[in-house]
Design goal:
The chain is an all-alpha fold and about 200 residues long. It is built from eight helices and two strands, in the order βααααβαααα.
Length: about 200
């Protein structure tokens, strides 16, 4: 079972990963975006860490709802609303339970990803964060490690795609050959989930 502490670890691990990889995210974004994705995400998850320390939410759903709300209010551009929607919708789907199963998390996360797709009007293959998130959702209920690997592979598979949504879509064929920064940061989020679970939680045992 996954309790509130697990979800707090997940958000802390995400913040650490984003901080560590912020320069790489910005470098990816400089090729096909506004060159601010790394800084925006780092600022957003620093704010998430701060508010979670202050308010200490009492359920898994409350952790994600609060984190999502903070991202929406802190992160500029498209990233704040998209990541905020992902976490808030996942948190809402988890409800008021004090513990959830990996299967319940997978189902809730799937609802969050669907909300992102609806908000952004994107689908698989559009060279967006969904190209990392959708493969992860497919295996999340079985293994956090498999979800991490699927997200990483999905992010890498955006390189040969032509962007059809977001700022990168304005570049047309020039977007080909670059990894989507949103997919890269989404892979960090899923990777942090596996990290929070630790060695014994990789298979969701």
């Amino acid at each position: 079972m996954l309790d509130t502490d697990f979800f707090l670890r997940w958000m802390a691990a995400t913040a650490a990963a984003v901080d560590r990889e912020s320069d790489r995210l910005t470098e990816l974004d400089s090729a096909i975006g506004d060159a601010d994705h790394g800084n925006n995400m780092r600022r957003g998850f620093e704010a998430v860490s701060g508010v979670l320390d202050e308010e200490t939410p009492g359920t898994p759903g409350a952790v994600l709802t609060l984190a999502g709300r903070q991202l929406i209010s802190t992160v500029g551009g498209a990233s704040g609303p998209l990541y905020g929607t992902l976490l808030r919708r996942t948190g809402k789907a988890l409800g008021d339970a004090t513990e959830v199963t990996p299967g319940q998390l997978a189902e809730a996360f799937g609802a969050g990803v669907a909300a992102v797709a609806q908000l952004g009007g994107a689908q698989a293959g559009d060279k967006t964060m969904l190209d990392a998130l959708l493969p992860a959702v497919d295996v999340l209920g079985s293994s956090f490690d498999q979800a991490r690997d699927a997200a990483l592979a999905g992010a890498l598979e955006t390189v040969p795609l032509q962007a059809r949504k977001g700022r990168a879509s304005y570049l047309g064929e020039r977007s080909i050959g670059h990894q989507d920064p949103g997919a890269a940061s989404s892979a960090l989020l899923v990777g942090a989930l596996a990290e929070a679970a630790g060695p014994s939680g990789g298979g969701n045992a």
